[in-house]
Design brief:
The protein is built from three helices and 21 strands. The N terminus is likely disordered. It is mainly beta. It has a 14-stranded antiparallel β-barrel. The two termini are 37 Å apart. The chain has a single domain, classed as Outer membrane protein transport protein (OMPP1/FadL/TodX) (Porin, Beta Barrel). It is elongated and about 80 Å long. A hairpin with a 3-residue loop joins β7 and β8.
């Protein structure tokens, strides 16, 4: 656990996006999972395997072999293109992604803990208007950064050899910072107003999971999985201030609003009051050939309607469909390293939780990746590629094209084994 806490410092506070859509709500909700999941379209609810950490369903922790322990570290890099009808821009970034630990305790109990991203914001926007009263040119600048991390701790119990149940506590911790400034570029005697909004979030969420896996000899298996995250009242801490700089020489601090010359009010950029984090339900199915082939799909629902809203935006009912395939030619091959490699492909379609200017955003993508094992061990290096698009250029909105590379190192070891010497 000490290792996880030390590793959290570089993860905490970084952001993995530069999307203007992160100005709203809780920002960009991160697609969950490690590269093994992400390369398969983000699936994992029905994956019950002993060679990976799968925190998407806490029941999967029971799949770990007795005396096995896993450490997992990962990073990712983003390349984004933002397009309007008349303009485009690109951005890229690289960050640490996660750190996690998992182990089995005997034959029937599995444990895992880790730090994974939950959401992030990052944007820098300039909008040009004419003042509503005087008609003078007015520039409005929006800037935001920050993120929310998920510190999770989960346990799973295997029942009747086929059924596994699990639960995890997900402690959300982070700060979202939003700034706003209004300037009148051609009127040097007018004041400039700016606002700073910090939302600090500290809240535990609890997830329940179940998996049923049936294996028919060595030729076929199928797994059914389900998860449910309980809703929770979130008491966020909001720090909000407005500064009115007059003629560029002095400043006056006020509570919620300030009148600018000419008449204009600076209000909170987004409404960050206490809210209820909605419940989240997911179901999954996996089938295939043990040790060789996995075909899987997930469906997830989360109704954000009425949670947060503001000027020109609201949160709404979200749903997503994820599909993935994993194939390993021959896990026991003595020759040909390519036969030991694991090949993954998938895709997803999401009705995003954000509605802007009456449009609910859609997010679509394809994924693929590969797992590179270390011979004779369950340690591996995995990489996942995601190519996707979100949004539209209709009604003065922005379309995002993005590419993400996520990679991790999974280290496997054995604990509590007595060695015998002749």
């Amino acid at each position: 656990m000490t290792i996880l806490l030390l590793a959290s410092f570089p993860l905490y506070g970084q952001f993995n996006t530069y999307s203007p859509y992160t100005r709203f709500g809780l920002g960009d909700l991160v697609r969950g999972g490690f590269p093994q999941n992400l390369a398969m379209g983000g699936t994992g609810i029905a994956i019950h395997e002993n060679n990976r950490i799968n925190y998407l369903n806490p029941a999967s922790f029971a799949a770990l072999d007795s005396t096995s322990v896993y450490f997992d570290f990962g990073a990712n890099t983003f390349h984004n293109q933002y397009m309007t009808e008349n303009y485009s821009n690109t951005w890229w970034n690289m960050n640490l992604h996660h750190v996690a630990f998992a182990t089995s305790v005997g034959k029937y109990l599995g444990l895992s803990a880790g730090i994974v991203p939950f959401s992030s914001i990052g944007y820098n926007i300039k909008q040009e208007y004419n003042d509503y009263v005087t008609g003078d040119a007015m520039d409005v600048f929006y800037k935001g950064d920050g993120g929310i991390m998920n510190f999770y701790l989960g346990a799973a119990l295997k029942l009747f050899d086929r059924v596994s149940v699990g639960a995890s506590m997900n402690y959300l911790l982070g700060r979202l910072t939003r700034e706003r400034m209004i300037d009148f570029p051609i009127q040097s005697t007018y004041s400039v107003a700016s606002s700073l909004e910090n939302l600090d979030l500290k809240k535990p969420l609890f997830t329940l999971g179940m998996q049923y896996k049936e294996v028919v000899g060595d030729k076929f298996f199928f797994t059914l999985g389900g998860t449910h995250t309980l809703k929770a009242n979130v008491g966020s801490s909001m720090q909000y201030s407005v500064t009115n700089t007059i003629y560029g020489t002095s400043a006056a601090y006020v509570n919620d609003t300030v009148t600018v010359n000419p008449l204009y009010q600076v209000i909170q950029d987004t409404l960050g009051n206490d809210f209820t984090m909605p419940s989240r339900t997911g179901v999954g199915l996996a089938l295939g050939i043990p040790g060789k082939l996995i075909i899987t799909g997930d469906y997830v629902l989360q109704d954000w309607t009425g949670v947060l809203s503001g000027e020109n935006y609201s949160l709404t009912n979200a749903s997503s469909l994820h599909l993935g395939v994993e194939f390993t030619p021959d896990v026991e091959a003595l020759r040909g390293y390519h036969k030991l490699m694991t090949y993954r492909v998938g895709g997803y379609h999401s009705n995003y939780y954000l509605m802007v200017n009456g449009h609910q955003l859609e997010d679509n993508g394809i994924t693929f990746g590969v797992g590179l094992p270390v011979r004779s061990l369950k340690s591996s290096f995995n990489v996942a590629f995601t190519l996707g698009t979100r949004g539209t250029t209709d009604d003065n909105l922005i379309k995002e094209n993005y590419g993400i590379i996520t990679f991790n190192v999974t280290l496997h070891d054995l604990w509590f084994r007595k060695r015998r010497y002749d």
